[in-house]
Structures are given as structure tokens and as C-alpha cells.
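Batch queue: ligand-bound targets. Current item pairs a single chain with pyridoxal-5'-phosphate. No template structures supplied; prediction is de novo from sequence plus SMILES. Inputs echoed for audit trail.
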Amino acid sequence: MLTDKKKVSSQALRALENQYGAHNYHPLPVVLSRGEGVFVWDAEGKKYYDFLSAYSAINQGHCHPRIVKALQEQAETLCLTSRAFYNDQLGPYEKYVTEYFGFDKVLPMNTGAEGVETAIKICRKWGYEKKGIPNGEALIVVCGQNFHGRTTTIISFSSDPDAKGHFGPYTPGFVSIPYNDLPALEAVLQAQGEQVAGFLVEPIQGEAGVNVPADDFIPRAAELCRQHHVLFMADEIQTGIARTGSLLAVCGDCTCAGHCERQSTYVRPDILILGKALSGGAYPVSAVLADDEIMDVITPGTHGSTYGGNPLACRVAIEALEVVRDEELAQNARRLGQRFRQRMARLVEKTDLLVMVRGRGLLNALLINDTPDSSTAWDLCVALSHNGLLAKPTHGNIIRFAPPLVMTEAQLEECCDIIERTILEFRK
Ligand SMILES: *Cc1c(COP(=O)(O)O)cnc(C)c1O
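Prediction returned. C-alpha cells below.
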């Protein structure tokens, strides 16, 4: 790939980012230059298992040949028209994605944060025009430790001081309750339900450290929302599209991967937000899905995006979703996830370094037995990278493990061996 370019060392490439880029991330000291399936290679050619998958954007694996082919073909044909005109890819994509997830309509955007912003706008407008909330008084209930993106409005309801500090004044209209706390949700809805337009929630909190709620939290929260005429909005940007062993995390233990036969276990959000793996990592594609009586509050001029719904995004997203279905990635994530947690649970018993393993499907985390401000989890991730496996700490003492869902069982066993060896050899 680099034959006609001068090869630049990892160290020099890191120095460039450090000198010319804003310091808004703190990356592990690894410079990646190629990816294929579950593997990535650094600038020196060292091979790694990717256990972050770009925060679950690469569920289909790096550079999936079908997705790359769709991208190439469409890139040579038509990339962007804007929504000032119709294009020949958008309609077929909208039909495909709404049938795939079972909603009347989709509003196409690009990044996850834009998807969340879009959902908030739809929800508020629905609150005024359909529910009859007095103008300017709508509330949206959110959860502590949430992660929904980085815009000014979204960080206004973050509980993370780094994400929020000195970015005010903040957007009002949000009420925060503790995650996984049904009595708190019920109390807010009882006290202020007439003013509440929606409840925005991650079915599993990924960035907070793969925080898995009680089994009944999501179904009962959705039921409370229904009782109080409040929109239940699921942010499945990280948990969706097969990551947790079902098509969506709100599907719980249902494996139907789209065509749901077990409606009883399926919690259907009023508004569903998708991003990340919707394109398999090839292109930024996000989407907000809802039924007509909600989506029809959006009329010409009320919302939009120059790139939203462009032909390239539409082509790529269809292919990315086809791959998920054809390769049965939800089923694979479920099977491998059970094995991963089984092996990690055994490891937790063998060492004082680990507190527990938790997660669902292939979205899992190991809790490290040290304080959040210690460097232990970071040092462990550096050691893992030396042994050929890339993972990243979240919230200081938690390591998330989220490989591409195209992994084989043999590869997973090898990865568990690497993690086990690294942890048992690790000295603080
Ligand atoms: C990543 C993420 C977002 C934001 O997506 P961006 O594409 O980074 O804007 C929002 N919600 C959740 C749950 C996420 O994991």
C-alpha cells in the first residue's frame, strides 16, 4: 500500500498529530495504517486484534469487501446532490432501513451526535404540537453517566465534568435521573409528566463502562413512558446493529435480527437513533427512525443537513446492513460474547487485578481493581498492545472489549489467551 510513498515511522506520525492537531483525544501510542476484518496493522507492519472497533462502528470488520465495493461503485457514480433535489439512492435506502428496523419513516443524518440532536428536536416539536405542552416548557428526561455526543446541547445534560466544563451557558430543558432507577423515572413523570416530552436513554451505557441495567429497566421504563404519553427514545448508536447479540439492545434476548417474531420481549422505542455501524465504518451515516404520527412534525425547512441522505451514504448503509443479516453477526456476537465472559470470569477468579467482567454480546468490560485515577488500566492496555491486542480504558479503571463481530471462535479463544497471559504477567 505504501510502495510509492516514503515510509514514515510511528514516532514521527505521532509527533505530527501532537504538534498540528488539537489535543482533544489521548490515544494509545499505536499508529494504525491498515485494517482487514478483525485485524489492524501499525505503520511498522505489526498486526493487532482490534478490540475497540472504532467504538463499535466496525461491527462488520475493517474494510469489508462488500461495503468497500458499494462505496467504490457509488463514489464513481454520484456522491452528493444535497436534498435540494431527489436522488436515486435515497428512496430505496429509506424503504430498506425502515423495513429493516420496523418504522414508518427515517430522517437521515451523518454523525451520531447529529442523530441525537435530531431526535431531541423531533421530540420537543412533538411535545408542543401533539402533546400540547406550552411552548418553550418541554422537558426531556436523561440519565446520569450518559454519553450521547459532543454538541453544545448534548453536553448540557452530560454529568462528565471534562465533557461539560467551561462550555456553558448550557441548553435548558433536561432533567437527569440516575441510570437504572425506575422509581426516579416514575417520580419525575408523576411530578412533571405533563411537561415531559421524552426520555432519552442508552439501553446499555457504553462510554460509562458497559453499564448493563437490570433486565426489567428498559421494558418497564418504556411502559412508564407510554403511561405518561412520553416518547421513549433509544440511543442505540453504540449498542445497536448486532453489537449486543441482537439486532438492537432493546430487543433483549431476542435473536430474530430484524424480523421480530417474539414481540413480547421486544421493546419498541418511539424514536430510535442509529449511527456508527450503520455504515460499517466506511462513511459517517446516522439515522433517526420513528412512525408517522411522530415524524410528521418535521416539515420542509424545519430540519436538514447538506450531506444527510447523500447517495454514497445510502448505498454504503444498505450494504452494511445486508452484511449484518447475511453473516448473522447478531448470532455470532451472542455466541462469542457468552464464551468471552465465561473465560474472563475464570480469569477474574485467578487474579486480584480484576474485579469483574460484565456486558452483553460482544460489548463487554473488565473492571480493574484500582482507583479511576490510577494508571493501571492504561498500563494494561499498553501491555495488551505489545502482545497484539488493542483495547482502550474508559473512565480510568474499566477496559472495554468490543471486537468486530466477524470474529471466529478460534480467534476469540486466541484473544482470550492474550488477555489472560497479559493480565497474569502484569506487574503494577
Ligand atoms: C458514539 C456515540 C454517540 C455520538 O456519535 P458521534 O458519531 O461520535 O457523534 C452518541 N451516542 C452514543 C451512545 C455513542 O456511543
